[in-house]
């Protein structure tokens, strides 16, 4: 029976981690998977996380099961940072919001799509290019996928494409949007565009599923949530998939949350009961440790302030790298100036698969085959080498 399985290719992005580790060149540059690096090229555990983990080691008195929804202290403490104080209060008082912990942002997206499918959604619209795992999750959930162009020729988001999709979408369709720091293009909707999108979705009734995986790494914590908050304020129903992997540096601990916004408390209760049963059938319950560490931080004012300062440092550094890259309007024919206007960790370069291969072989520069680079993998010490390598293969 099992011999009928056909060989699957390894995940191209995750395969880069191994390729990079096996490269003996000291000058190699990792711009592959989305992991933040400091000015020294390190990916340290956050100070606030270390402090919270120490408290957990000393104070945690059991590791008994919590349940499919995970640590609700974590979910509720995170909510005001995601939705803002006033929207959180408004939705909570009306019983219109609830959430549950998930294994990373991926688990949250998976659960959102599975919930949408269970509710009768047949087709999900997705801007392309997108994070490759989005398409895999949609396919795995048996969802029909409709695509539209995300980034326009002029470097802005392609609002016309989204407008058309929302206007033509069926009543049972959903649309999957990146809340901020679009992966892979770095091209986000402006606040004015989010205002318009919120109005369009409100009128059309299309269910928004928002993936917010990089809050704080674009323009700031509140700024990066503007679009999602505006949408959620306008529409009766929405699903928000959240990741703490980047903005708490918890990658391998898999920390995420799914928030469901419904028309009334009764609907929300039913959504969450379905979320719980889907979680139980998929992973039973999320891993506890990372979520517990986030809860400890968010329950403590000083640790919260320190965490926010660390996120702000990351944001500033990403901005500096982007500005430095953007100073190169002609890196062998590649214009890097748009990177100065884009947000977050990622950018797409107009390079061919062969050029990506050449960058890896000849220069030890590792990036996704799509031409996506993780801007946060660059430091002031290796930017010039990267730009020179790019110029070499594209010039
Ligand atoms: C990425 O896009 O590099 C990150 O979201 C990591 C991942 O899981 O793919």
UniProtKB/TrEMBL annotation:
CDD domains, alphabetized: AAT_like
Cofactor: pyridoxal 5'-phosphate
GO biological process, one term: L-phenylalanine biosynthetic process from chorismate via phenylpyruvate
Gene Ontology MF term list: identical protein binding; L-aspartate:2-oxoglutarate aminotransferase activity; L-tyrosine-2-oxoglutarate transaminase activity; pyridoxal phosphate binding
GO cellular component annotations of the record: cytosol
Domain Aminotransferase class I/classII large positions: 27-390
Pfam families given in the database record: Aminotran_1_2
Subunit comment: Homodimer.
Family statement: Belongs to the class-I pyridoxal-phosphate-dependent aminotransferase family.
Name of the featured protein: Aspartate/tyrosine/aromatic aminotransferase
Protein's organism: Aurantiacibacter zhengii
Lineage, highest ranks first: Bacteria, Pseudomonadati, Pseudomonadota, Alphaproteobacteria, Sphingomonadales
